[in-house]
Specification:
This protein has about 250 residues and is α/β, with parallel strands linked by helices. The chain contains eight helices and 16 strands. It binds beta-D-glucopyranose. Beta-D-glucopyranose binds next to helix 3.
């Protein structure tokens, strides 16, 4: 099946048509900057223009960087507060001129990695963490997603983890790989103590540079592997969720 996947991030909105049987992009992805302020109407307009760019009339799925329950966005840590409690699915339906599905961005990336990437076939407890503007999380047991976990917001040393260990934090505070890996390692130790995963999948654009920091993450019981779909995982997962809403309980 061919589905348009759209991934809304804190800095960019990316879209591409996806072959959901193969987990591959059918055309080069198109990226636009996330409008600032990241208000609902502005983002919906950007989504509408991406749909138009591809001349898309088939099924479409959107990955959103916040908690999504039944089409309503409940949080939006790195967007505008106007998203909180909004019927975002309705807004996107209008902008796209057709029904779309909506899922948390890390959950989408996790679905894609579990199906086609680093977690394929894994039956244990898998925790996917995406490092970008924020930190996103997707928890799986025996391949089933527990939707809307928000482990990027656990507190470490009195601070939201994502403000210390996201990719943005690395850039903002000009952290060396060593120093940043130290923070990521500390964060993974917390997450291991809380969720006892067998496997961590490290995602987000920075997963392309996994060799710079994954070898520095030691002392964990769980295996740590980089994502294999990198920045495309959100697009592919958004498309998967659009045809398999059951895979993302409460987020379809
Ligand atoms: C949000 C999550 C999201 C993550 C990555 C966090 O700030 O709360 O819902 O998955 O950023 O975008």
């Amino acid at each position: 099946m061919h589905v348009l996947g759209i991934d809304i991030g804190g800095s960019g909105i990316k879209a591409a048509p996806v072959d959901t049987a193969q987990g591959t992009l059918l055309a080069e992805r198109v990226k636009v900057e996330t409008p600032r302020p990241a208000r609902p109407e502005a983002i919906a307009d950007a989504v509408g223009s991406l749909v138009a760019t591809f001349g898309w009339t088939g099924p479409a799925g959107i990955a959103f960087p916040g908690v999504v329950i039944g089409g309503t966005t409940m949080t939006a840590a790195n967007l505008d507060p106007a998203w909180v409690g909004l019927d975002a699915r309705e807004l996107f339906n209008k902008a796209a001129r057709q029904p779309v599905s909506l899922i948390n961005d890390a959950d989408a990336a996790g679905l894609a990695e579990m199906r086609f990437g680093a977690g394929a076939g894994h039956q244990g407890t898998v925790l996917m963490l995406t490092f970008g503007t924020g930190i996103g999380s997707a928890l799986f047991r025996a391949g089933t997603l527990v939707p809307n976990t928000e482990f990027g917001h656990i507190e470490i040393h009195g601070h939201d983890a994502e403000t210390r260990a996201s990719e943005r934090a690395k850039e903002l505070h000009d952290l060396s790989w060593d120093k940043w890996a130290g923070r990521v390692g500390e964060y993974l130790h917390h997450m291991e103590a809380l969720t006892a995963p067998d496997l961590f999948i490290i995602g987000g654009g920075i997963s392309r540079k996994a060799d710079r920091f994954v070898p520095l993450l030691d002392g964990l019981r769980a295996r740590v592997v980089p994502a294999t779909l990198h920045n495309n995982a959100g697009i592919v997962g958004a498309a998967l969720a659009a045809i398999k809403p059951g895979a993302s309980l409460g987020s379809s």
